[in-house]
Amino acid sequence: MDSLLNGYRKVYKYRRHIAGALALTLFVKNGKRNLIPEYLLVPYTASLECTKYPGEYQRWLIRIAKRDCGYDGKVFPYVTTLLSTISGGFLGVGPLKPVCYVGIPRTYYCANMIEVSDIDLRFLFGKAIQPNSKTEERFLDSLVLSDSAQKYSVAIQLMYMKGNWALLEAILSPAVVMLGYSLCVHLPKFLFSGSSNFFTFFRFQLLALAASYFLCKLVWAQLYQFRNYRVSKQAAEISDEYAQGAVEYYRKEREFNMACRILLGQKGEKRFTARGNLRDGLLLNWNGPATTDLERQAKSILDRFTQNNDVAGVL
């Protein structure tokens, strides 16, 4: 009992320092990809092997997507070892215009599955992937995208940066920490001002701490939902070409997940569903919208473009 009280007093004495350190840690964790200069982070998603790919295609892809998205910020393109596009940075406001970066996968230089099989993908499965079975063929083919799908994938990253989502992501968790601090420290004083029972305060603070953690997870889940729906919708609505690219992009993503589900065995079954979605919560998608939902949204946008073109053709 005495040791518990002594430990509680020490934690309570440095409560502001602990909350501040936690808020700063989450700020750095959530904002490092977007707030740290690109020359410090790019090496973590690239390798010397990536330098053999010509830069002309990267620059062309970025230039076309920037023009179509109406993005006027500086973007540094490079080739990444990842299998999907990656970005860092934000458009900024006023005179604050940091240099952003977009990583282009090596597979975007491949025209067919044979060329994809020449890329070292052992980091995924621990072995080289060759077109020796239907599943491996599906996996390799899912990494071959048309120009429209590639431009759409880059447009998603540009819309993400254009919306300055990085700033919101950086301050979201620290804001929840500050709210949790109020729930754990100030609210018990207000509710139990006339009580001196230590365990009443302690139980309520534990409950408030658990509620703060759940609230943080819930807020991030809603952010993922809203952000992913919005940037994918904005990218698909650029033109009918981007809408067609969006449909292909999400179809190939589902095929990739379904192939990984088989190739990874039990680990794949735990991670992916039979329809090609990431496994998520039963009642709430904690990791953002499912791939099938994004594909459905892309098809709806493409249908609107098709109907408008048909009406314009009749007129």
Give the strand content.
under 5%
Walk across the major sheet and give the strand order: 1-3-2
Binned, the helix content reads 55-70%
Largest sheet report: 3 strands, mixed
Number of strands: 3
Backbone shape: elongated
Low-confidence stretches: none
Number of helices: 13
Q: Between the first and last Cα atoms, what is the distance in angstroms?
A: 84 Å
Structural notes for this entry:
The structure is a single chain. The protein is mainly alpha-helical. The protein has helices at residues 2-13, 15-35, 38-41, 55-69, 113-117, 122-125, 134-142, 147-162, 165-191, 198-236, 240-263, 266-271, 291-314; strands at residues 75-80, 86-88, 100-105. Strands 1-3-2 form a three-stranded mixed beta sheet. α2 (15-35) runs antiparallel to α9. The longest helix has 39 residues, at 198-236. The radius of gyration is 24 Å and the shape is elongated. The termini are far apart.
